[in-house]
Design goal:
two-stranded parallel ribbon, 11 helices, DNA polymerase, domain 1, TIM Barrel
Length: about 350
Amino acid sequence: MDEPKIDLRGLTSADLIGFLGGLGKERFRSKQLMSWMYKKNVSDFEQMTDLSKDLRAQLEQRAYISQWQPEAEEVSSDGTRKYLFRLDDGATIETVLIPMESGRSTLCISSQVGCAMGCVFCVTGTFGLKRNLTTAEIVNQVCAVRQEHHISNIVVMGMGEPLQNLDNMVAALDIFYDAAGMDYSSRKITLSTCGLVPQMRELAQRVNVNLAVSLNASNDEVRSRLMPVNKRYPLSELIQACREFPLLGKRRITFEYILIQGVNDSIEDARRLVKLLHGVKAKVNLIPFNEHESSCYKCPDEQSINAFQSYLLQRNLVAIRRASKGQDISAACGQLKGKLERKNG
């Protein structure tokens, strides 16, 4: 029985060197292969003309390079693009391209099919966790969108908890950073976690990446109600891990704070938040709740949002209100997947 072919999209430079070594080829060939895959976006080995015919024939026999096309795409009036990709096993994931100022754009990618964290405000959590994405599936989200659009920054804030898929996530980051691969600076990539403390520490030891923490509350009672993970790793442990997380230069940890009417949007909540983050190199992203039909939560009014932000700013805590994008499409994570599954179901 023939061995299954290897998807080269899932191999880091070190993996490629090992794979090519098994074929009796020199290590520098890995850079040539990565350049074809990521700089030129070529998946046909026959087009890789600086490789010998013998090597191309061996690659054709032993490997392939996966190429993705979205199954569905929605485009907002503000330029936000939401993609739905169907995987080989029939599962679906979402990826969002968000236009920014000065012609830049940020791609929000997924790390799992569904999510096990059960955050009550999140659509993705309603699907449960199906499985981790492979390294190739993480990388292919970027490759597919880069065929048509420039991507300035990558944020791992889509479906899933990336630190539950740490090995594949670190391998994907290696490919993003590799000068022969996608050649992104670590300043351009941010990984978001709900607060898995042991994995945060392991991440810091294995790779350099900007860290974002989904916080959403300033005390344990509210956060445990919104985010079950807080019962395992309460705020005292989470904030201590954030204090210990290595930061290069002037970088800060981003704390994502979804403002929910009557839950976490009071001035008392803001007061506790300032105290909680005292001494942490932090910035706070304030995100007005994106209302959806599967949630009873509401977005606060403008006055409450502005008052919350002003309180933080007046106490020298960097607080940025994140502009809501894609309001006229299925922009919140999981909404497009849910809509299509209801339609097909």
